[in-house]
Specification:
The chain contains 4 helices and no strands. It is mainly α. The radius of gyration is 19 Å and the shape is elongated.
């Protein structure tokens, strides 16, 4: 379960990092003729500063959710005992 949360956070970060960059040829889904007619489609979308900020907030919230989901899973699996709270606090501080 928590791996899905981590994946979503990474996907958002990847999209933020690609914003405005040229899409590699092997990742393009149209013909060269298409891109000659619509050269702007050769680039990943550019997000407004406001959207970027909200997306970064989403990544942070997802990272926090990941820590909780992971530690609770370990607790219920009895892999974490009394150190459960300490591990959550430590991992949250590392964010």
């Amino acid at each position: 379960m928590e791996s899905h949360i981590g994946y979503i956070a990474e996907e958002i970060e990847d999209r933020l990092n690609r914003s405005g960059k040229e899409i590699p040829r092997e990742n393009r889904c149209h013909s060269d003729e298409w891109y000659e007619k619509y050269p702007e489609d050769k680039f990943y979308p550019i997000y407004t500063k406001e959207a970027q900020q909200k997306l970064r907030e989403a990544v942070k919230a997802l990272r926090v959710a990941y820590v909780y989901a992971h530690r609770v899973d370990r607790f219920f699996a009895r892999d974490d005992g009394e150190e459960f709270m300490e591990k959550i606090d430590k991992e949250l501080k590392e964010l």
